[in-house]
UniProtKB/TrEMBL annotation:
Gene: LOC116036266
Cellular component, GO annotation: membrane
Domain DAGKc: 63-214
Chain segments annotated as coiled-coil in the UniProt record: none
A molecular function GO annotation: ceramide kinase activity
Protein name: Ceramide kinase
Organism phylogeny: Eukaryota, Metazoa, Chordata, Craniata, Vertebrata
GO BP annotations listed: ceramide metabolic process
Organism: Sander lucioperca
InterPro entries: ATP-NAD_kinase_N, CERK_C, CERK_PH, Diacylglycerol_kinase_cat_dom, Lipid_Phosphate_FormReg, NAD/diacylglycerol_kinase_sf
Protein origin, superkingdom: Eukaryota
Length: 479
């Protein structure tokens, strides 16, 4: 009888494809591609039975999304977001039977504001952002704020127990850096991200809440940077017309300027957990460290009280000094230019952040520290660098104890002359204040209180997979 066949939609990684087709991967092993697998049988009725059974099995998988809300930032990166989605992502969603409601944003924070109040989220299985890290931040803030308000939680209170978000977030990379996508998938490839969404992967992530006194400022999932990285972002914002190249220029300029800042850092160490910031092991798919530490961390972090008399008896630790950089990395912060990232052993979902303190040093020593971000050397093995895995930390710049930093800068003669020195660094005076770089956004205050919320959101991802997982399989076609 005539043979019948049916072609099935099958997302696989390039490593598996290389094994199947007996040739080298065409790209990095973390990229996924679609492959067509054709099954042939002698009877048409049997073929239809196979197809029906496979479709029933797919429909029974609850983790696979069926309805998605998609936000596209047409101005991200090289303004290719809309084109990337229409040419590379939308056809895959249609082929996989995923319905979408697509919204092209009209201004900054358009998606955030709509998610806070206007979007009907109950009919969607997830929210997808097409853009860079800034677009992801909009989605993140909108969903978290909406969840807290619906649950009757005050986001402005740093001691409140926040309600985790249940709606998963997908990232289609189309920005300048795409750090978050790179650190959670292993590559900045739109097709790979789309396939992770289609198969319904889920990766929990920690979120840091940032407060000034009793005022909420922002949420962070990757980097909080004061000093060098804050100065780079502030300077690069004046050069947006240059595109991604502005970060390189601002980085060189801030390195040559070599400003340091005085202040006090207080932190609550993450005691009794598995792993340290200087481990050789990395956070990977199915991370045992994240699973283990989630069960150990208490539900509520201790409140920070300024009481120097009892400081020696408290779990809190306090450091004072002059710093070139104060960084808090909640993930490795890896990107194509820095494959290791700021903290290579940081974990996505262990309820901690790695607090990296770079004290005042020579320009040459600071260059050594920066170059280690791109090498295999231990970037923390320097006398002027220290790193702590913490659950919460506070920072207060010198001369700023209670009021708004901006108010302090504007009142009094000393502040006026300090502003002149900041504008003209050739005078040799160190500027009094830097700015906080919070996931690529500048914070309005420098005195902040940061708390880590363990596994607070879910991404359509599975973490970075190790290639050996595929190499150990005796029959890759079994996937």
């Amino acid at each position: 009888s005539a043979e019948s066949s049916e072609t099935l939609f099958c997302p696989i990684s390039d490593t598996v494809a290389a094994e199947i087709f007996k040739k080298k991967p065409r790209s990095r092993h973390h990229r996924w591609r679609c492959a067509e697998v054709t099954f042939t049988c002698p009877e048409e009725a049997l073929c239809q039975h196979w197809v029906s059974s496979i479709r029933e099995q797919l429909a029974a998988i609850a983790s696979r999304p069926k309805h998605l809300l998609v936000y596209i930032n047409p101005y991200s990166g090289k303004r290719q977001g809309k084109r990337i989605y229409e040419r590379k992502v939308a056809p895959l969603f249609a082929q996989a039977g995923v319905s979408t409601h697509v919204i092209v944003t009209e201004r900054a924070n358009y998606a955030r504001d709509q998610l806070k109040t206007g979007a009907e989220l109950q009919k969607f299985d997830g929210v997808v952002c097409v853009g860079g890290d800034g677009m992801f931040s909009e989605i993140l803030h909108g969903l978290i704020w909406r969840t807290q308000i619906d649950g009757g939680v005050d986001p402005n209170c740093p001691e409140e127990e926040l309600i985790p978000c249940t709606l998963r977030i997908g990232i289609i990379p189309a920005g300048s850096t795409d750090c978050i996508c790179f650190a959670t998938v292993g590559t900045n490839d739109p097709v790979t991200s789309a396939l992770h969404i289609i198969v319904g992967d889920s990766q929990p992530m920690d979120v840091c809440s940032v407060h000034h006194n009793n005022t909420f400022l922002q949420y962070s999932v990757s980097l909080l940077g004061y000093g060098f990285y804050g100065d780079v972002l502030t300077d690069s914002e004046r050069k947006r017309w240059m595109g991604p190249a502005r970060y390189d220029l601002s980085g060189v300029k801030m390195f040559l300027t070599h400003h340091y800042y005085e202040g006090t850092v207080s932190y609550l160490p993450a005691k009794g957990i598995m792993g340290t910031p200087r481990d050789a092991a990395r956070c990977r798919s199915g991370c045992v460290v994240c699973q283990h530490n989630r069960q150990l961390l208490p539900e509520k972090a201790e409140r920070y009280e300024v009481d120097e008399a009892s400081e020696s008896d408290s779990e809190w630790r306090t450091l004072r000094g002059k710093f070139l950089a104060i960084n808090a990395a909640s993930m490795s912060c890896a990107c194509p230019r820095s494959p290791k990232g700021l903290s290579p052993a940081a974990h996505l979902a262990d309820g901690t952040t790695d607090l990296i303190l770079v004290r005042k040093c020579s320009r040459f020593d600071f260059l050594r520290h920066l170059l280690r971000h791109t090498s295999k050397d231990d970037q923390f093995d320097l006398a002027f660098v220290e790193v702590h895995r913490v659950r919460r930390f506070c920072f207060t710049p010198r001369h700023c104890q209670s009021d708004s930093d901006l108010d302090l800068r504007e009142n009094g003669k000393h502040q006026i002359f300090s502003q002149i020195c900041r504008d003209h660094p050739a005078c040799g005076c160190a500027p009094a204040y830097s700015s906080w770089n919070c996931d690529g956004e500048i914070l309005n205050h420098t005195a902040i209180d940061v708390r880590v919320h363990c596994q607070f959101i879910q991404l359509f991802a599975r973490g970075i997979e190790e290639p050996k997982v595929f190499e150990e399989l005796p029959n890759p076609c079994a996937i």
